[in-house]
Structures are given as structure tokens and as C-alpha cells.
């Protein structure tokens, strides 16, 4: 499979699968499990990072660290030529965990994590002031049952 001009092979996908399960897994353990050298794993992981295929981060459970208002916000933009400008401004806000342009009833889909409802209201008020934001529609997530990365086996 070709990603940004860099071909991903079975070894790359295997490495990515291990790191998705445990981003702190040592190169030694991965090399042993895949029966290749540690140097091969180090080189491949560094290339995957360089190419932007993977970012190794610590993912927190939002509820356990104190985010009590997790919401989906549909953003309607008028005129349509402002979509990109509005998306760029929203993407810079620290509350945003997901942002995408859509083809549905609204123009941008935004997921946010806020401390509480007051913080969420402040966030909505802030983006509502952006030039081009015509309307927002917010849906609160009461309970998140799954928050995960895609299963790479689906690409096989």
C-alpha cells in the first residue's frame, strides 16, 4: 500500500499493529516477535515517524483526567468559501480532538473535550464569533463506549 510516496509492506503494518497496542513497546520486543533485527525495527519506526505515518503519543482517558463535557459540534459555514478559513481557526483550539469537513447537512464536524459545561459553552461562543460561522448544533456525549484507532487488519 502506498502512503505519501512511501510503500508500506507487511513488516510496516506489523510494527504499526504492535505500537497501536502499546506505544511504549521496546524495539527489542517487537524485533523478537517479528524475527528481525532491532536495527531493522529502529530504521522502520524512524521512517514511519519521519513520513508522518505514525505519531507516538500518550492517549489519556478523557473522563479519568477530568474532562466532563465531551461533545460533537456540527458547524454550518456561510458563505461556503469560508470553510477552509473556519476549519483552520478551529483546528488551532486546544479543546478540539477531531475536525473534518463533511458532505452532509453541515460543513464541519468537530469533537471537543471540555472541563465542564461552562467551558463547553465558552468554546461554542468563541467559535460562533468566527467570520463565516452561521450556526452550530451541539450533541453531548453522555458516555463513550469506544475510543480507538482503526484496526489495521481491515486493510488486508
TrEMBL record:
Annotated HTH asnC-type domain ranges read 8-68
UniProt-listed Pfam families: AsnC_trans_reg, HTH_24
Q: Which GO terms describe its biological process?
A: regulation of DNA-templated transcription; response to amino acid
Q: Tell me one GO molecular function of this protein.
A: sequence-specific DNA binding
What are the GO cellular component annotations?
cytosol
What keywords appear on the UniProt entry?
DNA-binding, Transcription, Transcription regulation
What residues form the membrane-spanning segments?
Answer: none
Matching entries from PROSITE patterns are given as: HTH_ASNC_2
Q: Which InterPro entries match?
A: ArsR-like_HTH (IPR011991), AsnC-type_HTH_dom (IPR000485), Dimeric_a/b-barrel (IPR011008), Tscrpt_reg_AsnC-like (IPR019888), Tscrpt_reg_AsnC/Lrp_C (IPR019887), WH-like_DNA-bd_sf (IPR036388), WH_DNA-bd_sf (IPR036390)
From the Swiss-Prot or TrEMBL record, give the protein name. AsnC family transcriptional regulator
To which species is this protein native? Niastella yeongjuensis
